[in-house]
Amino acid sequence: MHSSHSNKPSIREGQNFPPQAMQRAAGFALLYFIIAWAFHAGTINPLNHLIGGGDGFIQGFPSKLFSTSFSSWNPSVQAGKYVYADVLYQSFYPPNLVILSFLPNTLGFNFYLLAHYALAGLFTYLFLHSLRLTTYSAFIGGLTFMVSGFMCAHKGHEYIICSAIWLPLVLYFVHRYVERLQILCVAWAAVPLGLSILAGFPQITLYSSALILAYLATSIFHSPKLKGWSVKFRHLAGSTFLLFFLAGLLGCLPILAVAETSPHLTRERITYEMFTSDGFPPWQVLTFLIPNFFGGVDRHIPMYGPGTTIFAAEVYPYIGLLPLAFAIGCFTVRRAIGFQARFWSAAGAVALLLSFGGMTPVYWLLFHLPIYNLFRVPARHLFEVDFALSILAALGLDYFLRHFRLASEKNPGSETTREKMREQKHPGYAQQFSDAGKRIKYWRPIRKTAFVLAFIFGSSLLLAGIIHSLAAGFLSHILPIPDSAILNYYYRLGDVRDVIAGNLSWHSPTLLLPLFIFAITMAIVLSAPRTNRNAAVLIAIPIVVSADSFLGSHRMYDNPSTDALFSRALRPELDFLQSRNFDRSHYRIFPVDFDLGSTARLTSTYHLLKTYPYPLLNMFDGLSVINDYGPFWLKRYQAVTGFGAGGTIPPAKLQNYKILSVLGTRFLLALSTETKQSIEATKAESESNGVVDAFSSVETTPNGITIYQNSRALPRFRFVKRIIAARDLDDALSLMSNRRFDPANEAVVENLESEDQLATGKIIAEQIGNTWLNLEVETEGRSFLVVADSFLPGWTAAVDGKTTTIFPAYGCVRGITIENAGIHHVTFRFIPRTLFTGLACTALGILLLGLLGWVAFTVRSSSVAGRRSAVAPD
What is the separation of C-alpha 872 from the centre of its chain, rounded to a whole number of angstroms? Predict the structure, then answer.
């Protein structure tokens, strides 16, 4: 378990956490936060511009604000959804709930994100320092991970960042456990692992857990404190059980919510094509050296790498040339460094192979591995790759600094002194020459590192030149490539020949910036052993690491302004809705084509300025939309509406105006010509059995949105005259496809007998909350009340205080029967069945953690008292 540094005085720094170490950690936390602020927010106004953008703007910002309401049901999207089961809302994540409760605005969200970047650096620093690295090397390792390609590329996916940062803190406590064999360290490791679960991106938590388990097992079997295989197995089994059991208790609230709802959600299983989509192709490793090699870092340049995704965020691994050089150096001397270098080299290699996805033969077997096969985008294994490279970079830098310092101490004489000694034939010259030979031995890893980096960087430049020539047609007589060659989801070679040629030309920043950084990197690497330049080198290293990562990634996101979220000047469609006295409580709208392909996804502000109200952003104005943005959909709702995972709808379903009417869709907002043509082609039957337009165009706004009105939209709460019985959902879908089906008077209901003559009723008064409804109704007899909100078990209903059954109506909404005439008080309540169980389990986890802490404190106090009494005089 011990590294080559185990005999250095700095051992004691990693074993305890005295006040000086705590002050140092606090200082580094502040320093990391300042660096993160300068790196991500230095060029924007954080009061009204969001760091990053993308999903962070259209989904992350509004969902995190909603989670501070502690509501389990969001009525504003998808006709209502259970947000505790949509882990991206981070409904139970303490940092989100605390920060955004006090700062529910753009600054709060920015501070929330920057704090996580700072914590990523701090936790990595703590882990590296526990390995007995120098403070400086540990600081650089934390900085490298904080600004690594994976972390920068996913700042638009804040839930990924929030889940990822807890890995090094878990490893810190795991390492302390292996060194001390104190069970309390395992208990403390469960806390950050539980927070990773609560952070809301289980894919990253799963990858972290696999890495933690591998590190724990390998560390235990390398520990000199444990003798015998049986002892090591017992420690491994006991610590693993406690770690994951306690972390499961602390993070069980979203786990139980997902488990409860998964039978009703669409993501219970994915296809192999989805499972392998957005992998990291082997040729994409060139972007470790030239970040924009295949385009995409600059969001206005398409990703044209063969078989790659067009979204660079998922395939951006760049950690910088200088950290890569130190990692290469660590690899060249891994035997001298020992276990840590070997483990992290292997971990990085395995994660890189897994990131290739379907191009790795073993990935077909992994498709049959439970839990793992629920997640797509294999390229997200670059998380472990970048983290491993960050650790290796710190180990390599630490080795160089330590051993060249030792070489200098062993060889204090300068070249001038040696020359004088040689001239005078000093008797000690032979020994000095021997010391110089030792110094040459210490130089070998530096030279090997420089050679390897120069070789692979030069090879990447050569390949860039070849691809540039092929795209420009200079080598067409040798290797002709037709324009029809398919590159990725959207592009053929002919579409981007000019883009490739321009991007890889020698005057392009794509090549000029890496060449400049390469020159600086080589200068720093070769200057590292020169003691008279140490101060300049130590100052230059963090500057170069940060600047290199910033230059490579800062163009990936547009940092959108949030002014339009809080101001109506840029949203004339809201003025239109106000002029029509739009009833927000009883009707919904439908932004039809908010996603128009790759061009639309280049900027976040496109959606806001052109097709607002975008799903989730609609909540800023108290509007409800029938679609949603995200992967979690209720099966019934998706089956009836036909929405895809991103909230788009096929034209055939768009023309089913009856379903839109059932959901209370009063207005449709359209932008593209194709969508407008599809809407205008939708016909409906009139009362005279004629054919008329189902939707009428009523407004075209200055920002290009055409608004269509659905005059047949039905109110959210209403009574029907007839019930048509359906055996199940498929039967309900078949019955509703009948051209004679009349949703205004008929309700297709499952598990209820057909009735042709139902009494009428009316709503007298109502009170509406997120998780409850109170309605005063008056009926003339047996009647059926429709509530056009999503059907999901967990909702309960009562009429005059007596519980009644909720039936699925129209396949996806709720309905109840009212048996008698008169005025009735109807209540609906949403109480998740697993909520109280989850709270009890979390409380149990906290209690166990406190109990273990108390036992450890008692044992330590008794031990100290025993030692004092043993040395006390009689």
Answer: 58
Bridge pairing between strands 665-670 and 588-591: parallel
- Domain boundaries, position 689: 563-709
Residues 421 and 339 occupy one common structural domain:
yes
Residue 553 lies in a domain: no
Q: How far apart are the C-alpha atoms of 173 and 169, rounded to whole Å?
A: 7
Q: What are phi and psi of 344, to 5 degrees?
A: -75, -25
C-alpha distance from residue 633 to each of 80, 532, 597, 642 (Å): 10, 63, 21, 11
Under DSSP, is residue 828 helix (H, G, I), strand (E, B) or coil? strand
| Torsion, CA 417, CA 422, CA 425, CA 430, rounded to 10 | 90
Bond into 412 cis (ω within 30): no
According to DSSP, the residues that pair with 588 across neighbouring strands are 665
What is the pTM (predicted TM-score) of this model? Answer: 0.91
How many domains does the structure of the chain reveal? 5
CA 626/CA 643 separation, integer angstroms: 10
pLDDT of residue 651: 72
pLDDT score recorded for residue 607: 53
Helix (H, G, I), strand (E, B) or coil at 271: coil
Q: Is residue 867 part of a domain?
A: no
CA distance 379 to 314: 6
User: Where is the domain boundary, 709, 743, 776?
Assistant: 709
**C-beta separation of 198 from 153 below 8 A:** no
Of 487, 507, 529, which closes a domain?
Answer: 529
Whether residue 292 sits in one domain with residue 420: yes
- The percentage of the chain sitting over the pLDDT mark of 70, rounded to a whole number, equals 88
- Maximum Cα–Cα distance across the chain: 121
* Distance from C-alpha of 648 to C-alpha of 660, rounded to nearest angstrom: 14
